[in-house]
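Backbone-to-sequence.
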């Protein structure tokens, strides 16, 4: 076998590709670009609030009202090891944690009885085989045999570890979609921080249900690099989804806080307000910001966290589901023809994006569209999603449906649209149930048409 020039080039390139693809990200949650565009005095309280409410990847934190399952576990002190006066840690053997997750390092431990009742320790070491926990020594912490405690976030930590193993290299440590391998993928991995997921069973204004995200993890997304994780157990899939929702809530909370501050306290606004035309001094702006942080910011934070958590809880209610009012119209030539006419009509304007024959080459793909956030034209022709990615309409002849290929999946895409994209919703006021089913029958026939 001859070793040619092409083989030599591949040999040179392959280590570079491998090293770049396996780059290890920093073990920390990152903040959004918009957060870093705030005045430093405005950005600092936002970052501190997020760390206080959510912790960091190595020290997770929970707060009341979240719809995620934290997995708190009760334990009891069995015995305490004797340590020297200068020892920084207290070690004690426990009972009650035998069936808990075996990696508890970094989690908060709340004392529920004894001298330290009400105090919070952070677990520095944990040996699953011996049941020995180590926490920092302090005057308030003096565990005695029989004292009880609560280890918080054990299930959240289980989900975190699974996420970091299977998902983080694409979706990033914070769920921001910029993991080490993301640069090689098209379409790019989802940014979870907006709390928007495209393929759901819920109405257009509702979040995804837990079941939707579990199905995506198990099935993958056809036509993308999102693989199926069917080899994971149901419990592992559930834990990953639990953690992903938690990352979304963190990102949405950050966005709400920053949006509240950005108009008045971005660095750009500060420069405008303190310019000669602005007429304000830096001291006046800083004093105004200080007053806001003292009087209003706590309420803003409370509203942000509670409203986001409430939206996720409501998504799992039955009334959030898209459920057809009538059974599927039988798939027949007549139904397909009605669906074809609807597809081409001004009532739906499907052909504007998907093209007259469903090839994904409609006239909308040739226009320069406006970014709804910046109000500036995109540099490239065609449609874009809410994350700013160019989004070619689906070629319906390929038979690849990223949200699932069951008739009910296509029905839900038509009824509720696709969240975060220009695909509109044709709910009760737009089409009848029979019309939606006719469209389903027509669309699903295209891969087999001549």
């Amino acid at each position: 076998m001859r070793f040619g020039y092409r083989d030599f080039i591949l040999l040179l390139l392959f280590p570079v590709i491998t090293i770049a693809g396996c780059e290890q990200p920093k073990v920390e949650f990152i903040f959004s670009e918009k957060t870093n565009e705030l005045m430093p005095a405005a950005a600092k309280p936002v970052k501190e609030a997020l760390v206080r409410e959510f912790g960091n990847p190595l020290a997770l934190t929970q707060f009341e009202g979240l719809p995620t399952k934290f997995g708190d576990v009760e334990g009891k002190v069995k015995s305490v090891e004797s340590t020297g006066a200068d020892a920084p840690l207290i070690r004690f053997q426990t009972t009650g944690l035998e069936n808990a997750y075996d990696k508890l390092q970094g989690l908060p431990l709340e004392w529920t009885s004894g001298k330290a009742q009400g105090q919070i320790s952070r677990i520095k070491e944990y040996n699953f085989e011996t049941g020995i926990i180590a926490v920092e020594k302090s005057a308030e912490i003096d565990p005695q045999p029989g004292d009880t405690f609560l280890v918080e976030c054990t299930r959240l930590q289980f989900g975190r570890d699974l996420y970091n193993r299977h998902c983080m290299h694409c979706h990033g440590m914070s769920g921001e979609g910029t993991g080490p391998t993301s640069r090689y993928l098209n379409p790019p991995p989802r940014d979870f921080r907006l709390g928007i997921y495209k393929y759901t069973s819920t109405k257009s204004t509702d979040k995804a249900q837990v079941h939707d995200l579990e199905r995506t993890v198990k099935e993958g997304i056809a036509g993308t690099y999102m693989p199926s994780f069917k080899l994971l157990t149901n419990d592992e899939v559930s834990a990953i989804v639990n953690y992903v929702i938690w990352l979304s809530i963190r990102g949405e909370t950050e966005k709400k806080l920053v949006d509240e501050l950005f108009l008045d306290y971005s660095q750009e606004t500060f420069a405008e307000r303190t310019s000669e035309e602005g007429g304000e001094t830096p001291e006046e702006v800083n004093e105004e910001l200080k007053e806001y942080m003292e009087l209003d910011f706590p309420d803003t934070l409370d509203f942000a966290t509670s409203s986001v958590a409430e939206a996720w809880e409501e998504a799992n209610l039955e009334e959030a589901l898209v459920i057809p009012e009538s059974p599927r119209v039988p798939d027949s030539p007549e139904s397909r023809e009605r669906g074809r006419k609807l597809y081409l009509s001004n009532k739906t304007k499907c052909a504007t994006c998907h093209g007259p024959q469903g090839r994904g080459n409609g006239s909308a793909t040739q226009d320069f569209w406006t970014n709804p956030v910046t109000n500036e034209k995109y540099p490239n022709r065609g449609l874009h999603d809410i994350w700013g990615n160019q989004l070619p309409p689906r070629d319906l002849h390929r038979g690849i449906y990223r949200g699932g290929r069951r008739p009910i999946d296509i029905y839900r895409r038509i009824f509720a649209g696709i969240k975060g994209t220009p695909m509109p919703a044709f709910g009760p006021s737009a089409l009848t149930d029979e019309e939606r089913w006719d469209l389903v029958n027509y669309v699903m026939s295209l891969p087999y048409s001549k």
